[in-house]
Amino acid sequence: ELVQFLLVKDQKKIPIKRKDMLKNVIREYRDAYMEIVSQAGRILQETFGLRMVEIDPKLHSYILISSLPCAEANHPCRAKEKEKMGLLIVILSFIFMKGNAVKDSALWEFLRWLRVHPGEQHEIFGDVQKLVTEEFVRQKYLKITPIPLTDPPQFSYQWGPRAAQETSKEDILNFVAKVQGKNPKFWTSQHNEATA
Fold first, then answer.
1. Domains plus CATH for the chain?
2. Residues in domain MAGE (predicted)?
């Protein structure tokens, strides 16, 4: 029952909380929580090639990560999600290459340069601003932090815990190098960080 619950919850790529597992599935078997989760983790791994990873020890929230080798980047994507994941890879690349954090104004300017405009309906991505600020954040691919003492309010974007689990800075640097037609060592500081 827990495996089915986790697989359904993972369809939306929203972190799964321990309290939801207890409330919706485990219920009166709370005392056996660790054993049930451990067994569900084994079934997920052996049957579906998925690892259950805790991304927030305070809130006890988990995500499922594919442990199967993947041909495309590191993302096992359904067809309709590939375009969104492509945009996400570009955003993660921009954040990494700019020192692991970017202001929202810089991110939106970068996306406009790619002809993806916030506030406008995009034929593939739909509402891009909502996709980036809500969906990618809720799925824990991106983390938004308010920048103190800014008027109007400004925000900083960093990689979220799911991004750090599903890809690596080395993969992202190799992606950027391939797009730019350069050796990854061309970007010395990023290369050192990615291979550390």
1. 1-66 (1.10.10.1200), 76-195 (1.10.10.1210)
2. 1-194
Write the pLDDT tens digit of every residue in 122-175: 887 888 889 999 999 999 999 999 999 988 899 999 999 999 888 899 999 998
How many CA atoms, within 13 angstroms, populate the side-chain half-sphere of residue 127? 6
Q: How far apart are the first and last CA of the chain?
A: 41
Distance CA 79, CA 67 (A): 19
How far, in Å, CA of 172 to CA of 122, rounded?
25
Residues 38-49: tens digit of each pLDDT = 999 988 888 888
Instruction: Give 98's contacts (C-beta < 8 A, 6+ positions apart).
Output: 106
